[in-house]
Amino acid sequence: MTIVGIQHKHFFFFLSVVLLKLLIAEKKVRTIIKQGVAEKSDKTDIHIPKARVAHRDITKTNANHSQPIDEVQRNFNISHAYTNPEIIASNCSLTVVMIEPKLTEKSLWVLESAAANVYPMHQTCFVIKTSICKVKRELQEKYKSTRNITDQYAFEQVAFSIKEMSSAHPKFLEAINSGRVRMNVLDYEHYHLKSCNNFKGITKQFLNYDFWGKKEFLEQDSDFILNLQNDGIICRPFYVDNWRELSFKHGSEGILNMCQ
Questions:
Q1: What does the pLDDT look like over 175-208, one tens digit per residue?
Q2: How far apart are CA 214 and CA 249, in angstroms?
């Protein structure tokens, strides 16, 4: 399936046809991609350490975090919306999307590769579509009846954890601090995904009309979407304007070849 893909939201019907064709050849595509990533990983100097789940130790590291929502947003700059004044006024030139129920260190290396190589950098936005259900259950178990664990509170803990893990990724951290990163909880039931902690079958989401509208994207988001997955990185400069004439670009060609 797609490691990195760029899509135009207004051509979701065309995208649906392409994705259906990909499903038919899924096994073949996965084999090609795995081989390609293995070959390219030998040629890159980027070191990806053993994956560490961003949500894992959240009850230990963030258990006492109980600041007001507006103060929280000022502190770690990840909320439901963008806070960058230029983005609010002029919108994003490209929206980079990461869809993962649990962000790992590997996920952040992928996001760092995009933050470091996509141009224009100052107009590139990032959307993390993730899950909070596991974190919420852990917090409820920890505090039992002593604290009301709301969805917003769990959301803040996940966002705070992502900001902490991003300290080793300067370009993505810069995007966070400048208000170009937002996060939302994916409605896994609406897209008929396996569970809140398992987004298997995510192609169903791309084939869903609602995904390409206001349910998932804000007014400031670009019509051009760069979809990232954990098993691929961008290791060469990526100029958005060079791809604007295409309604869909599959990641197994072209974009991956930039790593050669």
A1: 999 999 999 999 999 998 889 999 988 788 888 9
A2: 23
Cis omega (within 30 of 0) on the bond before 101? Answer: no
Amino acid sitting at position 20: L
Q: What is the pLDDT of residues 79-93, one digit of tens each?
A: 999 999 999 999 999
Cα(244)–Cα(14) distance, integer angstroms: 15
Rounded to the nearest 5°, which phi and psi values hold at 161? -65, -40
Tell me if 199 sits within 8 A of 99, measured CB to CB: yes
